[in-house]
Amino acid sequence: MAATSLPLPNTGGGGNPNFEGNPAAVAAAAAMPPAPGTDMTGICFRDQLWLNTYPLDRNLVFDYFALSPFYDRTCNNEQLRLRSIHPLDAAQLSTMTGNEYMLSEVMEPHLFVIRKQKRDGPEKVTPLLTYYILDGSIYQAPQLCNVFAARIGRAIYHISKAFTTAASKLEKTGYVDADNESPSLEPKTGKETIDFKEVVRVDHILAQLQRKVQNMSVIYFLQQSRLVGWRYE
């Protein structure tokens, strides 16, 4: 889903079509970085005017990324830009501490992967978030815990639904067998009694498994409070 983009204020004289007529939103985007922990995976940023003017390559991709609402102006890269140093200069960034962005994967001109990380020393960094630029559109990659939560939740739902359907069909089969028992045919009655006992046994096993799956669902949702603060590393 594409949301309204929040570029930085224009300094070159040309207005940005994403925010014409809304200077307050532009000023707010420029003054404040995204709040820590803000989920921005539902936002897509694209500045077609910029893309029509400049080539999207490894030398200019960071300037393009800096226009997006994903960019934190308090990062070390911004300090390098103010000193007229390339913002992705690894030698300079390694001497600083704090939040920074680095270009981790490049497939010019279609795909660029940018990682936000916290640097505590020349060789000590902690990954925080990942962004990718796909054919000029910028997205925030979902955190790994959110991907696991969605996949596990979907799997538990389908497994629980399958157990419910299977148990319902087995109960119906057992009910029909019990009604169709014929006292006049002893061999057939004996066979049907054995089959019904087997159905009841399997039904009992399925019911136990279903309860376990439901308990897993409860435990899973209770654990989400601990997963929310987890970050992809």
UniProtKB/TrEMBL annotation:
UniProt cross-references to Gene3D superfamilies, sorted A to Z: Mediator complex, subunit Med6 (3.10.450.580)
Annotated Pfam families: Med6
Annotated localization: Nucleus
Keyword field: Activator, Nucleus, Transcription, Transcription regulation
Domain of life: Eukaryota
Gene Ontology terms, MF aspect: transcription coregulator activity
Record function comment: Component of the Mediator complex, a coactivator involved in the regulated transcription of nearly all RNA polymerase II-dependent genes. Mediator functions as a bridge to convey information from gene-specific regulatory proteins to the basal RNA polymerase II transcription machinery. Mediator is recruited to promoters by direct interactions with regulatory proteins and serves as a scaffold for the assembly of a functional preinitiation complex with RNA polymerase II and the general transcription factors.
GO biological process: regulation of transcription by RNA polymerase II
PANTHER family: MED-6-RELATED (PTHR13104)
Protein name: Mediator of RNA polymerase II transcription subunit 6
Family: Belongs to the Mediator complex subunit 6 family.
Subunit structure: Component of the Mediator complex.
Gene Ontology terms: cellular component: mediator complex
